[in-house]
Fold:
Amino acid sequence: MLLQASETDRIRHNFKKGLFFFWSEAWDKRIGPELVSFTSPPQSTFTATTPDAALRTGNFQELTNPIIDPATGLPFPGNVIPTSRIDPNASLLLSTYFPLPNRAGSTNYAVSPKSSTNWREELIRVDSTMGEHDSLMARYAHDSWSQDQAILKPSNQSFPTIGGFFGKPGQNLVLQWTHIFTPTTLNQATIGYSRNAITQTPDAAGQRPSSLTIPSLYNSNGYNLVPTVSLSGYSSIGAQGLTNNTNNVYTWRDDFTKQLESHSLKAGLNILRIQKFDRYPYSGQAGSFSFTGSATGNAVADFLLGNAYSYTEQSAVPQDYLFANAFEFYVQDDWKILHDLTLNLGVRDTVFQGAPNGYEKYDNISDFVPSLYDPTKAPQVTASGALVAGTGDPENGIITPGNQKGLDLPRSLTPARNNIGPRVGFAWAPFGSTTTAIRGGYGIFYHWDNDNHESLSSNPPFSQSATIYNTTLSGFVSGTQTAFPPTVAAFDTRKLYPAVQQWSLTVERQLPFSTVLAVSYVGNQAKHLDQAPNINQVQPNIGVAKGTTNVNTVRPYLGYAAINYDLRSASANYNALQADARRQFKNGLLFEVAYTYSKALGAQVGQSQFVNENGPTTYDRPQVLTLNYVYDLPFFRGEHSPAAVLLGGWEASGVTTFQSGLPTTITTSTDRAGVGNTGQRPNVVGPYKIHPGNINGYFDTTAFALPALGTFGNEGLNVVRMPGLNSTQFNLSKKQTFHVFSETPVTAKFEAEFFNPFNHPAYNGIGTTYGSAAFGTITSALDPRNINFKLKFSF
Structure:
């Protein structure tokens, strides 16, 4: 049925009558701090540890430990490596990518790069009232952020000898329709779309020098990048691990609300369609060397001689096109039982279909299933750790969407999971009190957490990889004539989703001077948390530890190197006392003081990849005190003199935070246990007393010692606490409104921002590798004093 002209005119009239439009655009260009990771704030000063001039020539006379000649088993005379024994490729990489020290101390290199950051944001919003029952809203946001980096980040690169470009533009669109059926019945329908595209490329300095002669196993280094080089106790170089992907999220949501006497009823449905497209995966095609000191007792000496603890390389990897779904349905009732008591009751049903990454468009993913591995089909492995051609099944225990070897799984290789999460809460004003309130709640919440589906296309049969132990920098075999056990990314096909139980109880009291005090107990218990142990780790083996046995010959699943098995078997809990006093804005003053006393404990795999260890989590901060305030300075209030225009109307605000440091674990650089990986722990032989502020001796290093070969150290999980934080930010601002053209007001706002105004040292990193030059020292700090001035006009 066609609308009559009068009806069309009425809709058009209502649309124009209730139309609101908003648009804004912002730009920012900054020279200085640069990105470190996806979750950390930009950093202005980078510190690192680099070999000095003497070490580069093979002269280790400054060290007390003898440098062992792996050819004889005896120390080099005078602790000097002959020039003729130094690998030319090592010399070239050192001179090109490892700058010389520029300061004293264990972290002997520091730089404040002048990276260029460009940001632009557009916001558009349209609201329209379509009569008394309907309204529409449309919102679009576009955020363009890019950085020309002096140090390629995130990556293994530690020095400004390899830079790059990092960009992460994003956009978001939301359309929302609200319909009022009756004064007590409302429905809101929402559709949304968000997208971000991450681009990361190294600059030309990341390409291999023409004189570098390190070979390649697969010749898949399309960008011609230098290999990653890790030196235990020193900073690393490399331009791999590049992130180039596009992420799309589609949202369909409907929320229905009904007010029914003392009940406020809500029900809704939320559907997510998640897409992730990995463009040009580049995570190991240039090769990665690890030098640990396993040959000579010193990582730099190993590097000069070309004796690597391990070398890994990945062949070309197909581009991923991953898809997943999530469905949520909820019902909720806010029930006002009495005039001073309200109950909140609800339940949410969440169904994950492969989320967050799910199935691959072309089925280019595979998984390793331990129960399908057949030891009788294992390939033969030579004493050097290479595979004997033509023996065994190269896909032993591996399934693909098209060949599940008897399993019945969807294309994502993970079944859908239905998760029920009840919620209950209450708010009570005891006996009708107007100054006291007691609140509490409990709920179960689910999340998809991380997974490793992005890595599954790097498995056989879609891609090949090799891990070679006790090899050389320049002499391992190139080409396809020699095969080595691949490293495999795998996951538990049951794929349990993290479940978090949360609870809280709060007592709130109105105090004099417009101040409210709240004291709370807050806790949670999380299970099925994500971790990826190497289930192909060898049990402690003295032959592997001594270097007389190649680890690939004694692994549980012969034919494979590491099998990093994504498993939802970690857990954590958090319990806290929280106190908060806040004054509402009155007479020009607002302030808040918040204090938290807490404990966060967890269970996760440790040195043995088969056993969970208990200890503080890496986010455990026992105490946090935060003060924030806003104060309208009282000078010249209500006056209109020239002095009042200049000196009146200023506002001071700030935030000061004191918090305990995070815990960390002391590790060793070598494979003392002989299990096929480093990152193990030393023995604790005495008290490790902390000396706050002592840069060169933050904790007592004599409290730790190397364990015997073939054994794990006895140190526990996260036993040493890093420096705490004393941080202040202060802001001084003033607004002034004036008229430029007729009656159009223009508001100017001046701001002076002071970050760390007292220039208090905020140390945030310590040397945790046993025996390294930086061991026990403070290695990094947050930014020093920083002052910004801003002038903003609004009209």
User: Anything to note?
Assistant: The chain has a mean pLDDT of 91. The longest strand covers residues 563-586. Helices lie at 5-17, 53-56, 88-97, 299-305, 542-546, 642-647.
